[in-house]
Design brief:
- The complex is a heterodimer of chains A (258) and B (545).
- Chain A is an alpha/beta fold.
- Chain A folds into two domains: 148 residues, P-loop containing nucleotide triphosphate hydrolases (Rossmann fold), CATH 3.40.50; 64 residues, no CATH class.
- Chain A is built from ten helices and ten strands.
- In chain A, the strands form two sheets. Chain A has a six-stranded mixed sheet, with helices on both faces. In chain A, strands 2-1-4-5 form a four-stranded antiparallel sheet.
- Chain B is mainly alpha-helical.
- Chain B contains 22 helices and no strands.
- In chain B, helix 5 packs across helix 12, helix 13 packs across helix 18 and helix 18 packs antiparallel against helix 19.
Chain lengths: 258, 545
């Protein structure tokens, strides 16, 4: 029997009023994969991710999380751990109270939960802020709280929207290791980033979105073939695929002349 | 910098604060899915909402002015005191009401003012600290502009209708301005204290929990005081008048206290009646002292408001944390615990605590004047409690709007949400019943009817709460339950309340009909109607995904 795809997206269309943010998007993510969702600002990455986690409603298209359609909200959401791009948590709560709320909704048992939590809190050095209101935390510490909340229920699928922004080098390294470990264990990861070096090192597969459409998909090697370049970095490939390379040197020159 | 330039910059700052009051609560910074048009709608909603809020406060001020000055305006014969005695008491009562109303309004808007972090936008601009303070101060003043101006106009209008003098009018204007400055100072002081000492504090320490609870009571005081003044205007005026006529030592002491000092002075400059020049000198001296104090208050507020506008009063603190153990609950209990925690730290949600306390106070006072509690009176009281309780569900759901861009990805079932919110709102109703029973016990009244019918009506109220929540969920599940979604659409809000009120009224109507048709079955009919409603709504909610 064929293994179910972790994420299956077919013909996804999302619009904001008359503006179509995502147009006929299709991709699949399998277990063991770290799928990098790349694209310029406003390309539709975050919109796509918000649909996958049930925050946004698509206009049309089919989205399934481990064969569970998104319309079966609770079942689909139970399998996801999500870190949003802009971390807006319940600011008046402390991380302890916030995690108590999240784990209550996820029906986690305190017997198995607390030892895991202790490890994550120690890894991300959050203990000293555990009883401080989230409003008073730095952006990086808020991000860490969101990461811990995303991991506590051992989700099969991790969806991380720019998770490294605001993290210090240590936490960033730990998170990257956790992502790799998660995939090795058989889980799936969708990971959005603007840092091409990170995507190149971490992702097993990359999908490049531009103007709401996938313009390139595959391993970095596959993409090199696509742009007919044997040596280019992911950044070069990205700029070519998204048609941003043309005229860029002229723009830089013009700026330098100023 | 020129005042006109400061004013222009404060307009931008003010727009941002009023926009934040809706936008940040609407979706936890998630973009509205309707796109640009939806954002424009939000901006106009924000303008509309802030205007409505100002007009409501203005209306309250006008009503209070009317009620407080009514004995003087009508030449009340029951007052049994001359106008020159009644006027200081009325002026004192009015200034007190204005003070409390503005403080109350200020505390409500302080959340959006703090969360807007408007100073963060202004700081990088080439502006001096002094100019930034002035801009933020002007922005803060603009939140209250209409009520502040209206209070002055209403006061002057009433004063001249009574037949005041020019000098008295000028003094009235000064007294209202000083009252408003004191109100703003009190607001800023409370907000600063709340955000630096209460909201910042950990949820674990007993002392901090106690502080939060204590602050919530401080929070409700202005509302209760305002209610108290309106209902007992005549008694207060008489009481103040009695005090001022009483022992001269007490009257000398009173004239030193704000706002009595202005009450005396306005009265003197209106009628030039006094024979007691010590009172006149003391009231003049203390009025001047309060004017000087007000000047320093303005300086303090201008300085402090910048600190609040920066949102920097809640700094991150490294605390010694003993353990990292968390205690998850079953989902509905987790939601209730979260709601109570959020409400205890967010002034705009403090109404969760405010409503039951105010309604209980109202009922307790009403109750004390009744000689006997019959069926009609009991049903009337129960309608009163249920109507106020049924205002709660939209507020409770709007808490879900906080950070909804994050929390909406959680696997939350609709029925869990309805159960949690319905339990919390029903608990409010039951709490009110308990307080009412205690009051009636203290007053030696027979409370059996209220208790029996109230307990049964609890089923109906609970059903009505579930009905309101179900309608709201159906309407707003996909777009989120933020304040902006609920309160910016008055029609939606009213449409939610009507079916709730109708449902809560059905057992009452059935009982009244039974009273005429089959008087011995009133209780049974009431019980049957309430339990049927509850059963129907519970079944509907139980089958929600």
């Amino acid at each position: 029997m064929m293994e179910a795809a972790a994420v299956s997206v077919e013909g996804l269309v999302v619009s904001y009023g008359s503006f179509v943010a995502v147009e006929n998007l299709s991709f699949t993510v399998k277990n063991g994969e770290i799928y990098g969702l790349l694209g310029p600002n406003g390309a539709g990455k975050t919109t796509t991710i918000k649909v996958l986690v049930g925050v946004l409603e698509p206009r049309s298209g089919k989205v399934e999380i481990y064969n569970t359609p998104l319309s079966d909200e609770v079942a689909a959401k139970s399998q996801i751990g999500y870190v949003p791009e802009e971390v807006v948590l319940l600011d008046s709560l402390t991380p302890r109270e916030f995690l108590e709320f999240v784990t209550s909704i996820r029906r986690l048992s305190k017997d198995t939960l607390n030892s895991k939590l202790e490890r994550y809190i120690s890894a991300f050095e959050l203990k000293q802020y555990f009883d401080t209101p989230i409003a008073a935390l730095s952006m990086g510490n808020k991000q860490k709280v969101a990461i811990v909340a995303a991991l506590l229920h051992d989700p099969k699928l991790l969806i991380l929207d720019e998770p490294l922004i605001g993290l210090d080098a240590r936490s960033s390294k730990i998170l990257k290791e956790l992502i790799t470990f998660h995939a090795k264990k058989g889980g799936a990861v969708i990971f959005s980033t603007h840092i091409m070096e990170v995507a190149e090192k971490l992702c097993t597969k990359v999908g490049i979105i531009n103007k709401g459409k996938i313009v390139g998909e595959g391993t970095v090697e596959d993409l090199r073939k696509l742009v007919r370049s044997a040596e280019g970095s992911l950044e070069d490939i990205f700029l070519k695929v998204t048609e941003q390379e043309a005229g860029m040197q002229d723009i830089i020159k013009a700026l330098e002349e100023e | 910098m020129k005042f006109s330039e400061l004013w222009r910059l404060s307009t931008t700052a003010y727009k941002e604060v009023s926009f934040q009051s809706i936008f940040s609560l609407r979706a936890g910074s998630a973009l509205p899915q309707g796109g640009r048009r939806d954002v424009k709608q939000l901006i106009s909603s924000a303008k509309y909402n802030t205007l409505v809020s100002k007009l409501i406060t203005t209306l309250f001020i006008a009503i209070f002015a009317f009620v407080v000055f009514l004995p003087v305006l009508m030449g009340d014969t029951n007052l049994s005191m001359p106008l020159e005695i009644a006027l200081p008491a009325s002026v004192t009562a009015f200034l007190t009401v204005v003070l409390f109303l503005i403080v109350f309004m200020g505390l409500q808007v302080s959340t959006s003012f703090v969360s807007s972090k408007i100073v963060d936008v202004l700081n990088p601009l080439p502006l001096s600290k002094n100019d930034i303070s002035k801009i933020v101060f002007l922005c803060f003043i603009r939140i209250f502009d209409i009520p502040l101006i209206a209070a002055g106009i209403v006061f002057l209008a009433v004063y001249f209708i009574i037949g005041g003098t020019i000098l008295g009018g000028l003094l009235s204007l000064v007294s209202i301005a000083i009252t408003e400055i004191f109100a703003l100072t009190l607001t800023v002081f409370s907000a600063r204290f709340f955000y630096s000492r209460v909201a910042r504090a950990s949820g674990r320490s007993f002392w901090q929990t106690f502080l939060r609870l204590a602050f919530m009571f401080v929070w409700i005081l202005p509302t209760f005081a305002a209610y108290f003044v309106v209902n007992f205007a005549r008694e207060i005026v008489q009481f103040f008048a009695y005090l001022t006529q009483g022992l001269s030592a007490l009257s000398y002491f009173l004239v030193l206290i704000y706002p009595f000092s202005y009450g005396f002075l306005v009265s003197y400059t209106s009628f030039f009646h006094t024979t007691d020049y010590v009172t006149l000198v003391l009231s003049t001296a203390s009025s001047v002292a309060y004017a000087v104090a007000a000047f320093y208050c303005v300086r303090w507020v201008t300085r402090t408001i910048r600190e609040i506008g920066a949102g920097g009063i809640a700094r991150g603190v490294r605390e010694v944390v003993k353990d990292t153990i968390i205690r998850p609950q079953i989902p509905w209990l987790g939601i209730i615990r979260k709601d109570l925690r959020v409400a205890s730290r967010a002034p705009s949600f403090a109404s969760l605590f405010l409503l039951p306390v105010v309604q209980t106070a109202v009922l307790a006072v009403t109750f004390s004047s009744m000689s006997e509690i019959g069926l009609n009176a009991a049903l009337g009281i129960l309608i009163g409690i249920s109507m106020i309780t049924l205002l709660l569900p939209p507020t409770l759901l709007s808490i879900e709007g906080l950070a909804s861009a994050y929390t909406r990805h959680l696997p939350l079932k609709k029925r869990t949400l309805v159960t949690a919110k319905a339990l919390l709102a029903t608990a409010t109703y039951i709490f009110s019943l308990i307080v009412l029973s205690i009051v009636s016990l203290v007053l030696g009244k027979n409370f059996t009817l209220i208790l029996v019918f109230g307990a049964i009506h609890g089923f109906s109220v609970s059903a009505a709460i579930m009905l309101e929540l179900t309608i709201l969920l159906r309407k707003l599940w996909k777009e989120g339950f933020a304040v902006g979604n609920i309160y910016s659409r008055i029609s939606t809000y009213i449409l939610i309340l009507i079916p709730g009120y109708v449902m809560a009224a059905i057992p009452m109507i059935c009982a009244i009909v039974a009273l005429f048709v089959a008087p011995t079955f009133v209780l049974q009919v009431f019980l049957a109607a309430a339990v049927t409603e509850f059963a129907v709504m519970t079944t509907i909610v139980a089958y929600k995904e």
